[in-house]
Design a protein that fits this description.
The chain is mainly beta. Helices cover 9% and strands 49% of the residues.
Amino acid sequence: MNYRFTLLALVGLIWPLAPALAQTAPPPAPTTTTTTGPPAAPTATAATPTAAADTATVDPKPVFFGYVGVYYGYDFNNPAGLTRPGFIYSENLHNQIAINIAMLGARYTSQRLRGTFAIQTGTYPDANYAAEPQIFKNIYEAWGGVRLAQYLWLDAGIFLSHIGLEGPISRDDLTLTRSIMADNSPYYEAGAKLTYDRGQKWLFSALVLNGWQVIRDRNQNEAFGTQIQFRPSAKWLLNSSTFVGEGYNQPDSVGRQLRYFHDFYVTYDPSPKWKMVAAFDAGVQAHARNAGGYDNWQGGALIVRRRLWTRTGLVGRVEYFRDPAAVLVSTRAGGLNTVGYSLGFDFMPVPRVILRAEGKQFVDRNEVFALNKVPRRTNAAVTVLLGLTF
């Protein structure tokens, strides 16, 4: 994918909006919903505060947002193909400066309607959307929703995954790079979801999906998912997400292999300086047609961030991923049985910019990696990133 050309197109789209954006406050992160009201329509008399409020409620303006993440990564195993191991989908190029994701979008929210449309380019969609038709590879989000009742919304389209804490944009994650279990579970989904959210302690969602990270379905087997979030206090968040459906998006003639998956994570913020996250994934998948039995995999991560000063912080991670039957990850020695360690440093020189650096090492029980074509058990890399929000 020629993502450099697409990035130029994105800049051409946003340039005419630059004067307006410069007069407003910094836009929220893509996961934040904000409603902004336009000025009242011209009338013969001055609009009253009530009339202006009604206009803002009925016809709010769309909010534009964007992000560019540029990175450099160096893999000490010096891969000949200039790409990191195949189970890594974000910041995955070796020894070159590249754009992981450049994204531009608009969000609309009113009392009864909401929706988001955003386009993307970069090495992340190039790697993670490889199985999708070309027309869908540049879609980051494309969905609309309607409020059916108080606190109850129905949304449909292409949206970010309900699974996991880590997303495709590094700025929104605790660590620069993603864990193995995040890179090998859905980042995006296509389907419909019903969400009940009172904005307090509980959130409930039920989803009907095309499949496991699938936009264009190749069979007639729908998948289903759930999400439950509980906030017992301002310091704690517990999340449980499930998926049940066909795992490989295979044609009906090949047969169906059902996948059952559960993701759980908990976040804890004991003080403004500390944040802690623990996450665990577990899944099973049926063997091929008439073979009987199931294969399983598990993953886990513990992440701790410490704010040093107002604009700087340290973040450490320990993770593991076990997939002996290669359900999600296939290597030269079969599946993965890997432990990973990473340490990162963050600096925000100005509110719209984040600079990040991270060192990471993987250690597997088997020789799944290679150095100069010689099998080895370890892989180490360093990555630096510049993230710009506009």
